[in-house]
Amino acid sequence: MDRTEVYNKVVEIIGPFAKDPEALSKADEKTNILTDLKVNSARLVDIILDFEDKFDIEIDDDAADQIMTLGDAVDKIVEIKG
Amino acid sequence: MDDTSETAHLTKRSQRKAVRALLSPKDRVGLRIQALLARIFLPVLYPIYLVLLRFGLGYRVRGHRQTLARIRSELRHRRDPLLICPNHLTMIDSIILLWILTPWWRTFWDLRLFAWNTPEKRNFAHVPVLRFFAYIGRCIEIIRQAPREETQKLLARLKALLVHGQSVMIFPEGKRSRSGRVDTEGFAYGVGKIIDDLRLIGASPRVLCIYLRGRRQTGHSVMPKRGESFYLDYALIEPQTEYRGMRAHRDISTTIVQKLAELEGTYFASSDISR
Q1: Residue A25 to chain B, least CA–CA distance (Å)
Q2: Does B145 touch chain A (CB under 8 A)?
Q3: What is the mean pLDDT of chain B?
Q4: Residue in A45, A52, A59 to test binding to B, most B beta-carbons within 10 Å
Q5: Domain harbouring B179, CATH code
Q6: SS3 breakdown of chain B: % helix, strand, coil, rounded to 5?
Q7: Which of A26, A55, A66, B32 has a 20 to 30 Å separation from B71 between CA atoms?
Q8: Torsion of CA B218, B219, B221, B226, to 10 degrees
């Protein structure tokens, strides 16, 4: 799975949680998940768990805390999947 | 001391050591001073809450004494960490619950159910008098979406209080319910994290789920209506989970919120019957 595929899947997973769909359509790797896409911070855990399920990986608490932007999410997933 | 009680004693000591390690010396001293000042001032200041709620606002709770006696009886035999998790409809829910759970005369020596609270700093910290009452009233101020280090510090303080036999009140929904019903979709998982962390160091935290609702309360509000009569129900649970990490936090938080929703179901069923 290349970086673009991972990015597209990340956007697809975050979609239902984003309160600003317009921001999501214009998003890039620098887009902040909480502030730009207006995702409720409590839902970030659901998003991380969805990443785990959809990409078949495990993301620990410390790694999850470092995910702020779409790019951070893609980096972490690519790193874990090797 | 027999083998079982000695083991329990050692376990408690290791739990306290484990959470103490998470706190800085400054935090440890700060908590001790706050606890001490609360113990000294609460018996004097608490009647102010009492007079205001009972006589100023005319609040009353149906079956108050019997419910409180039942809660105390269920809690009597174990001194495990206790989280008090109520539903959340008004901005003074925690104050009303402190009044309900701790009669004035008990503040002289028994603060087990006078829970530590975690109010949002922005709601009160700009008014010095409120800040003073919050400090004496055992509040640990929080900032929503604070940096990770601050959140870790807050969690460490709460866990330290819990393993030392104090109770902590946390609204599992995270905010006042906008629908007027227990929010079973948009709740936070912080309470699940605290419980899971405590379980990992060998503690057996229990959760006192409380459903409190004014009979005339239709949605969320700043305060209940004057002269309100409250319905009160509770369930004491020890949430278990087969998961680990964030999945465990979500699972435990879900169990608590579902229990509150169940208590709410009982309230509305009984309201339908009484109409």
Answers
A1: 24
A2: yes
A3: 90
A4: A45
A5: 3.40.1130
A6: 55, 15, 35
A7: B32
A8: 10
Q: pLDDT for B229-251, tens place per residue?
A: 999 999 999 999 999 999 999 99
| Cβ–Cβ gap B250/A61 under 8 Å | no
Residues of A in contact with B247 (CB under 8 A): 49
Å between A72 CA and nearest CA of chain B: 16
Burial class from Cβ neighbours inside 10 Å (0-12, 13-18, 19+) for residue B216 reads: exposed
Q: Is the pLDDT of residue A79 over 80?
A: yes
* Pairwise CA distance, residues B131 & B125, whole Å: 5
Average pLDDT in the A11-20 region?
92
Report the candidate in B254, B248, B95, B91 with the shortest Cα–Cα distance to residue B183: B254
pLDDT of residue B8: 62
Domains of chain A: 3-81 (1.10.1200.10)
Question: β-pairing, B60-61 with B167-169?
Answer: unpaired
Q: Calculate how close chain B gets to A26, using CA atoms only, in Å.
A: 25
Kindly state the percentage of chain B with pLDDT values over 90: 67
Q: What residues make up the domain containing B138?
A: 3-274
**Alpha carbon separation from B31 to B14, B117, B164, B268 (Å, rounded):** 20, 13, 12, 40
Cβ neighbourhood burial of A79 (10 Å; 0-12, 13-18, 19+): exposed
pLDDT tens per residue across span B124-175: 888 999 899 999 999 999 887 777 788 889 999 999 999 998 999 999 998 8
**Total number of domains constituting chain B:** 1
Q: At B275, is the pLDDT very low, low, confident or very high (cuts 50, 70, 90)?
A: very low
With CB atoms and an 8 Å threshold, state whether A49 touches B187: no
Q: Do B187 and A42 touch (CB under 8 A)?
A: yes
Task: Give the closest of A40, A45, A65 to B250, CB-based.
Answer: A45
Distance from CA of A60 to the nearest CA of B (A): 7
